[in-house]
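Morning run. Coffee first, then this:
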Amino acid sequence: MYHCNASDPSPWSEGPDARSIAGVPGNEAPHPHHRLVCELNRQHHGKHAYFLCELSRGSHLWVRWEGEEVACVILRPCGMVDATADPIRREACTLFADHSPGHSWQFSDMLQD
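And here it is:
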């Protein structure tokens, strides 16, 4: 299974503070979230999704977009684990609950930026 990898510049990638990281004026490093890269399955339908951060154990901040429409949304994490994996190596799915088919641990490619 492969990631969608659809990519768009983030809405905050332009502007006076876009290149200022950690309050350092003139820093030439791009904003850490300067591009949105879809983390869902290549065959998903509807909006693309990009993880921004964990707000709390039960809520994550995601950017969802389709065309010019972009929105930040708070979603519950999926948390599904691969029951066939060694219990010590099991990792929960890093996507949001009720995402399109394909859990993060099922992807065989890396996200591209």
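The chain has a mean pLDDT of 84. Good start to the day.
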